[in-house]
């Protein structure tokens, strides 16, 4: 069995974020770690559907999770994601006055 490369390719990340529900999940996690129940409420979908979206985000390396008792908590794994999403939001309303760079290292 081949070892999986750490991190995801840009194609995988963009594909994972290409769904409005998954983008909402990423935006919610920009505010900090969340219990899965909070994420279900944030997207307004059922548990099973939300879980599938979170699996896709986890496979792409966008989020990670850990179990604490019977609760599952998720956090944004790509530090640059919040900067990237904010940059895109600003660009939508006109060009940002200052160009910034993203350093995910």
How would you describe what is shown here?
The chain has 105 residues and is an alpha+beta fold. The chain has a single domain (10-92), classed as Winged helix-like DNA-binding domain superfamily/Winged helix DNA-binding domain (Arc Repressor Mutant, subunit A, Orthogonal Bundle), CATH 1.10.10.10. Helices cover 50% and strands 13% of the residues. It has a three-stranded antiparallel β-sheet. The radius of gyration is 15 Å and the shape is globular. Residues 1-5 have low confidence and may be disordered.
Largest sheet: 3 strands, antiparallel
Radius of gyration: 15 Å
Low-pLDDT stretches: 1-5
String of helices and strands: HHEHHEEH
Q: How many helices does DSSP assign?
A: 5
What CATH calls the topology is Arc Repressor Mutant, subunit A
Strand content: 5-15%
Instruction: Tell me, rounded to a whole number, the average pLDDT.
Output: 84
Please identify the structural class as seen in this structure. alpha+beta
Shape: globular
Question: How many domains make up the coordinates?
Answer: 1
CATH architecture: Orthogonal Bundle
CATH superfamily label:
Winged helix-like DNA-binding domain superfamily/Winged helix DNA-binding domain
Count of individual beta strands: 3
Q: What does the oligomeric state look like here? A: single chain
End-to-end distance: 28 Å
Percent helix range: 40-55%
Q: How are the strands ordered across the major sheet?
A: 1-3-2
CATH class: Mainly Alpha
